[in-house]
């Protein structure tokens, strides 16, 4: 009897607990978020499940908790889950339910951002490549095909996660609709359609929200969604929320992405953001009860081929997504971590404390591994397909990897030029097996000279696809050769046809099926294979600095891309994917290594840029001569953050646009501009896709990545900044790519408090021909 009573009491307690749990609610109150009707400040840590090996998920979640966060914020990456049409996969490293449950196990809420577009420096911003098989597809619009596919994806996500909404016993407190749509287009119909799809997928019980920049949030703001803002370290917090507060005085405020650092591109300086400035930003928010999500709390690694790219100018992402975040790529604490943890520990409720910091995983060195087996691509050709005309890779049902286009010259030539429209993204051009050129889309290298060639010469163009663009309209980024190949002789173009096409996908099953033979370093593109033994496993960093350009697979896991130009020279190798005993490593090198060997280091090398051309745009000894040039406009900006639009008194025809800053508001020597737009005949910004920097009198590249191209990289948080000396005037000249009718321009100064380097007085010049130097 006694026993029965105890049992009954126990059952009651359990039921009560369960109902108490079920009763959890999350809602939007007057000026604050509410959990069970109690105000909370969301302190979210953004981490990405595919950027962390699944066995390490729990560790990283615990690290976020120890950092002082109460929420985990995740994107859902559509193209990871639906790699082939209608084949959804939520298993293993893609098991989002498991991921969210792990967060719940450690008392963390989850914010879900299912896109469908996510940006995130991820291949095509998370959209599946196969959408591009439809030639006229317009992604992120009401395009019926796109909308139909989004519906299927969203439902699949709903099936996984809708049951984890907080009031149903899970930990999901909010779901995001689209992502920074204002930076892409103005289309409320589209955004409402996505909102409805998110609801229809089952996310009916928690608040839905939109995130945007303070310059764009009104463009698509829906009445029934919460609005949040994204901005980075250094931003002026009060200024960021000024407009939003006016529009929605009662809304709780949240910075849905506070950028802790920044991402790295191949061939560009490694990015960092000062810990002190970042921590100050968080403090400013906490002091105002503003919720935030730290993007990234831990960036991790963009394994395999999953990195995206920015455009213009086309610029692919490195494999490391360390992001200079508080938790390093390998899950280690950093100085930023300690500083932030100290700050956050000051904002705990009475009785709360931060858990101990979990140990990081052991690290090992791996002695030199020599590669003695190779499989050259040209002697391992897979089955080919014929195509009369050039088609991009998607038309051959290939998503990623390299593609070889082969044809023979129909008639002999005495020399000329080969023009490839366009190379996406890096090509090797061969005539009868002899390398003629390497072409790099980052520099818009689409042509090369041809020597005299005989009729019947075999022409090979091997094109490596880097990441698909993940931001802006150029996310419609088809790979391989997008349009055509022409031979231009004596100014007359002839299109080449009758192609044999060979696909080299990135799948491990393909890569390991190559015929590897004993061989030394190859001068032609090749796969290399080696095995190595380990007596203990641990995390390590594979040093790729003797290799050219390509990709690495270890024990079947695609580890990432490498490129000699850096700044990343090592690849993070998680110990959980290594084995005691025998391991296998395969390297694809399209350029060819200096030495075919790899060592595992105990520390990463992420900031070793090796380029033979400088990043700055002013040539040595070059001096701009503006004497005699006609001033189109002489004016003064208004002091303060935010975009400013200047209309010319009359339109001017021209291709070269020069903005000259004569003085600054802070009366210092440095000029800075975050974004610049040139207004065309219709008064709207002209496309910046073909823009290039002709000249900038000075560019800071020692203290950070502040080159002049930052004024048209579409990112409001990146900027051109001159060095301390010389003083004003400062000039930037942009080649607009073609002649335009210019009616004015728009300019965005830096987002920081005090608007450092904001130009006061300026002059503008517009010319048909280039300026004189
Ligand atoms: C934006 C996007 C994110 C990411 C960051 C930059 O805010 O929403 O996905 O791309 O920029 O890291
Ligand atoms: Ca910028």
Molecular structure report:
This protein has 773 residues and is of the alpha+beta class. The protein folds into four domains: 18-347, Alpha-Beta Barrel (TIM Barrel), CATH 3.20.20.80; 366-372 and 514-601, Galactose-binding domain-like (Jelly Rolls); 381-504, Galactose-binding domain-like (Jelly Rolls); 633-767, no CATH class. Strands 4-5-6-7-8-9-10-11 form an eight-stranded parallel β-barrel, surrounded by four helices. Strands 26-15-27-32-29-30 form a six-stranded antiparallel β-sheet, with no helix packed on it. It has a six-stranded antiparallel β-sheet with strand order 16-25-17-22-19-20, with no helix packed on it. Strand 7 (172-176), helix 6 (188-200) and strand 8 form a beta-alpha-beta unit. Helix 8 runs parallel beside helix 9. The longest helix is centred in the first third of the chain and has 21 residues, at 2-22. The chain is globular and about 80 Å long.
What do the pLDDT scores average to? 95
Identify the strand order in the major beta sheet. 4-5-6-7-8-9-10-11
**CATH domain topology of the largest domain:** TIM Barrel
Shape: globular
Main CATH class of the largest domain: Alpha Beta
Biggest sheet overview: 8 strands, parallel, barrel
CATH architecture of the largest domain: Alpha-Beta Barrel
Number of domains: 4
Q: Which range does the strand content fall in?
A: 25-35%
> Helix content range of the residues, please?
10-25%
From the alpha-carbon coordinates, what is the Rg to the nearest angstrom?
Answer: 27 Å
Bound molecules: alpha-D-galactopyranose, calcium ion
Structural class: alpha+beta
List how many beta strands DSSP finds: 41
Superfamily at the CATH H level of the largest domain? Glycosidases
Unreliable segments of 5+ consecutive residues = 8-20
């Amino acid at each position: 009897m006694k026993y029965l009573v105890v049992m009954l009491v126990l059952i009651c307690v359990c039921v009560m607990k369960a109902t108490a749990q079920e009763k959890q609610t999350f809602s939007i109150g007057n000026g604050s978020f509410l959990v069970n009707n109690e105000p909370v400040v969301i302190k979210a840590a953004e981490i990405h499940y595919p950027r962390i090996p699944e066995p390490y998920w729990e560790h990283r979640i615990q690290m976020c908790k120890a950092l002082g966060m109460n929420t985990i914020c995740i994107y859902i990456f559509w193209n990871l889950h639906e790699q082939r049409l209608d084949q959804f996969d939520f298993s293993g490293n893609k098991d989002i339910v498991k991921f969210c449950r792990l967060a719940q196990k450690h008392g963390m809420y989850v914010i879900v951002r299912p896109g469908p577009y996510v940006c995130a420096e991820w291949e095509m911003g998370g959209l599946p490549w196969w959408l591009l098989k439809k030639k006229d597809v317009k992604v992120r619009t009401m395009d019926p095909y796109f909308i139909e596919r989004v519906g299927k994806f969203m439902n699949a996500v709903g099936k996984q996660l809708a049951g984890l909404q907080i009031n149903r016993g899970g930990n999901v407190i909010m779901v995001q609709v689209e992502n920074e749509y204002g930076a892409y287009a103005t289309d409320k119909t589209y955004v409402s359609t996505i909102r409805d799809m998110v609801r229809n997928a089952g996310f009916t019980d928690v608040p839905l929200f939109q995130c945007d920049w303070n310059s764009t949030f009104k463009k698509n703001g829906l009445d029934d969604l919460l609005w949040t803002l994204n901005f980075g370290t250094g931003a002026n917090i009060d200024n960021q929320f000024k407009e939003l507060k006016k529009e929605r005085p009662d809304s709780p405020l949240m910075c849905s992405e506070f950028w802790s650092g920044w991402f790295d591109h191949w061939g560009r300086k490694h990015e960092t953001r000062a810990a002190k400035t970042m921590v100050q930003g968080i403090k400013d928010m906490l002091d105002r009860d503003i919720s935030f999500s730290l993007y990234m709390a831990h960036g991790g690694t963009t394994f395999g081929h999953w990195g995206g790219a920015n455009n213009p100018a086309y610029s692919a992402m490195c494999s490391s997504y360390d992001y200079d975040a508080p938790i390093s790529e390998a899950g280690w604490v950093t100085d930023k971590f300690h500083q932030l943890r100290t700050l956050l520990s000051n904002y705990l409720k009475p009785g709360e404390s931060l858990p101990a910091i979990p140990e990081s995983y052991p690290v090992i060195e791996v002695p030199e591994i020599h590669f003695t087996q190779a499989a050259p691509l040209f002697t391992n050709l897979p089955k080919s397909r014929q195509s009369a005309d050039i088609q991009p890779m998607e038309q051959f049902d290939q998503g990623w990897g390299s593609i070889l286009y082969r044809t023979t010259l129909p008639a002999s030539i005495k020399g000329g030029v080969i023009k490839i429209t366009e190379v996406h993204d890096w090509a090797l051009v061969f005539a009868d097996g002899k390398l003629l050129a390497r072409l790099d889309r980052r520099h818009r290298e689409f042509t090369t000279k041809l020597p005299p060639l005989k009729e019947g010469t075999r022409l090979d163009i091997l094109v490596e696809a880097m990441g698909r663009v993940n931001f802006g309209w150029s996310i419609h980024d088809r790979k391989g050769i997008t349009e055509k190949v022409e031979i231009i002789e004596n100014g007359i173009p002839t299109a080449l046809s009758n192609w044999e096409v060979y696909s080299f996908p990135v799948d491990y099953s393909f890569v390991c099926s190559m015929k590897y033979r004993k061989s030394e370093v190859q001068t032609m593109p090749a796969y290399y294979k080696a095995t190595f033994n380990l007596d203990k496993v641990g995390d390590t960093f594979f040093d790729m600095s003797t290799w050219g350009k390509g990709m690495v697979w270890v024990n079947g896991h695609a580890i990432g891309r490498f490129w000699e130009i850096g700044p990343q020279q090592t690849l993070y190798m998680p110990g959980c994917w290594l084995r005691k005993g025998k391991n296998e490593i395969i390297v694809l090198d399209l350029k060819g290594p200096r030495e075919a060997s790899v060592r595992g280091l105990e520390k990463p090398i992420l900031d070793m840029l090796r380029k033979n051309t400088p990043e700055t745009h002013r040539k040595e000894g070059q001096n701009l001569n503006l004497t005699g040039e006609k001033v189109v406009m002489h004016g003064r900006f208004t002091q303060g953050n935010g975009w400013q639009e200047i209309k010319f008194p009359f339109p001017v025809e021209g291709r070269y646009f020069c903005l000259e800053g004569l003085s600054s508001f802070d009366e210092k020597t440095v000029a800075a501009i975050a974004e610049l737009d040139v207004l065309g005949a219709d008064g709207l910004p002209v496309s910046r896709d073909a823009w290039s920097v002709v000249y900038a009198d000075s560019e800071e590249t020692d203290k950070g990545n502040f080159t002049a191209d930052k004024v048209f990289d579409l990112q409001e948080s990146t900027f051109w900044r001159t060095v301390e000396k010389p003083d004003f005037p400062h000039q930037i000249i942009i080649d607009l790519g073609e002649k335009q009718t210019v009616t004015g321009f728009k300019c965005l100064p830096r987002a920081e408090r005090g608007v450092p380097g904001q130009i006061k007085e300026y002059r503008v010049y517009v010319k048909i021909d280039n300026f004189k130097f």
